[in-house]
Amino acid sequence: MATTLPKVDVVTVGLGWTGGIVAAECSKAELKVVGLERGEKRGTEDYLKIHDEYRYAVRYELMQNLSKETITIRNHRKMPALPMRQLGSFLLGEGLGGSGTHWNGHCWRFLPYDFQIKTMTDEKYGPNKLSKDYLLQDWGVTYDELEPYFYKYEQMMGVSGDDINPFWGKRAQPFPTPPMKKTPILSKFEGATKKLGYTPFMLPSANLSEPYTNPDGEAINACQYCGFCERFGCEYGAKTAPEITVIPTATKTGNFEMRFRANVVEVLKSGNKVTGVRYLDTLSGEEFIQPAEIVVLTSYVMNNAKLLMVSNIGEQYNPDTGKGTLGKNYCYQILPGATGYFEEQMNTFMGAGALGMTIDDFNGDNFDHSDLDFIHGGSISLTQTGSRPIETNPIQRDTPTWGAEFKKNSIYNYTRTLGIGTQGASMPHKENFLSLDSKYKDAYGIPLLQMTYNFTDQDRALHKYITEISANIMKEMGAKTVESRTPITDYDIVGYQTTHNTGGTIMGGSPDNSVVNNYLQHWDAENLFVIGAGNFAHNGGYNPTGTVAALAYRSVEGIIKYSKSGGSLV
C-alpha cells in the first residue's frame, strides 16, 4: 500500500536541465519544491577520476539501465517492435543532472524560421512544398518572444561565443563570455569556408573560455581542453551542468528537496487537474504518493511521453485518422558530413565538447529551396572534441577492420584525420510517432514506450545535399583523401548517431494540434506542465539544449503565475 506524503507546491519528475531550472526559479519564488530523480546523486567530486574511457564512454556509467527500462523500436507499423537491449543510436542519461551532465555543451538558439516553419514555408514556397504526409506546424511562440529567455539561460550557463553569425536571430545582449580558443585545426576550417564564400563563426559553448560567476552566484571554471566531455562529467566544474548551477541555486533557498532512486510510474489526475504523482523507491520497492499543487514533467523526451500515456492523460495520436496529439511528431536528426585524411599531424587528442567552428549558410531557410526536394538544412561544423584512444580508430574504407594493416593505418591516421559534421533538421512525418508497446513491460510492470520511426525522402534528400557541401569544404581544407558519409536508407539503432530526440509532447496554439500550450501547460490538466525537447514540433539544425532551456524559463514564469492565480495561461 502506498504511503501518502505531505503535499507540496511543486513536484518535478527528473532533475536534469529542465527539472533544475524549474526547481531554482520556483524555490526562489518561495514555492516548496520536491524534485524526484530515479537515478543517483552525483557531482563534481565524483568525477576526479573521470578519464576512464571504457567505464564512461564504452560501458555508459552515466546512462539509463536498459535492463530495467528500455524502449521498443520498429521502422514501420507492419514490423514487429523489439526492445533496445543495449545503448546505441542514442544515450539516455540518468541521475542528477541527467543528459546535462554527459552532454558536449553546444548552446544554440533555434532560428526564427523554426518557430514559424509552417507559415514561412507556405508563404515562400506554397503549401505543397512537402506532401501532406509531413506534419509541419508552427510552435505557438516566436523567436522574438523567446529571445529574453534564451539570454536568461545563457547568463545562467555563462555561454562562450561571439555574435558574428549573420543568419541567426537578433540578440539583445552579447554572449556572457568570449569564444573558446581558435585552434590551428579550426583555423583550417575557417580559411576553407571563407574561400568558398561562407561565413564561419565559433560555436556557442558551455565549456567556458574563462572563469564565470552567474547571476545566482554559482561559479563555473574555465575549460582545460582535456577532451573528455561527451559521456563524461567534468572534474574541473568547467562544463556547465545542472549540478553546478541550478541545483545548488535551488538548494540554497531552503525550499527545495531532492529525492533519489524515486521512479515515478504514474501522474494522478482528478477532473481537469492532476493531484500528484505515484513513485517507487527503486531499492526498497516501497510505493509513495507525492501530492502537489503543480506537477511538472521534466524527464527525458521519451519518459515524459510514456508517463502521460500510462497515466491516460491526453489522446494518443492515431496515424490512420490523424486524430490525437500524444506521441505525434517524433523526430530524430540527420547527420550529413565528410571525413578528411591529411598528411600533417595535428593535436586532435586535445579539445572540448563544444570547441568548434560552424557555418549556417545551409541551415534553416538561409538558402533557396525552390529547386530542391526538401526544406530546412543544418549547421555544418568542424568540432575538436578530443580523440580518445579506445574508440578512435580512423581508417579509410578500403582498410581491413582487423590485423596489421588496420593497426598501422589506425595509428598513422590518429592525429591526421578530421571530420565535418552536420546537425541536420528532421521534419515530422505521419508514420513517425511514439506509443505504448502492447507486449513488453519494464521491471516495474509498466508497458514500454514504442518508437515507430524511419528516415523519409525529405531526410535522404537533405543528407545527400549537405554531404556534398561538407565534402567540398574538406577538399578545400587540403585533405589528401576525402570520404563522404554514406547515403542513409532505413533507420537502424546500431551505432551511436545523436541523442537529439524530439517530439511526442508537442507545443502549439490549439489542443487540436498539440499536447501543451506555449507555456507548456497541458491542455487537459491546467496544473500539469510538460517540459523538454518533446515539445518541439520538428527538430532543427542545431543541438536542442539551448532551446529546451529557453522554453523551460518561459514555462516556469507561467508556473509561478499559475501558482498565484490558477487558470489557463493562454
Automatic annotation (TrEMBL):
Keywords: FAD, Flavoprotein, Oxidoreductase
Highest taxon in the source lineage: Bacteria
GO molecular function annotations of the record: flavin adenine dinucleotide binding; oxidoreductase activity, acting on CH-OH group of donors
UniProt domain Glucose-methanol-choline oxidoreductase C-terminal: residue ranges: 428-552
Gene3D superfamilies registered for this protein in UniProt: FAD/NAD(P)-binding domain (3.50.50.60)
Protein family: Belongs to the GMC oxidoreductase family.
Name of the molecule in the record: GMC family oxidoreductase
Species for this entry: Psychrobacillus vulpis
The organism's taxonomic lineage, starting at the top: Bacteria, Bacillati, Bacillota, Bacilli, Bacillales
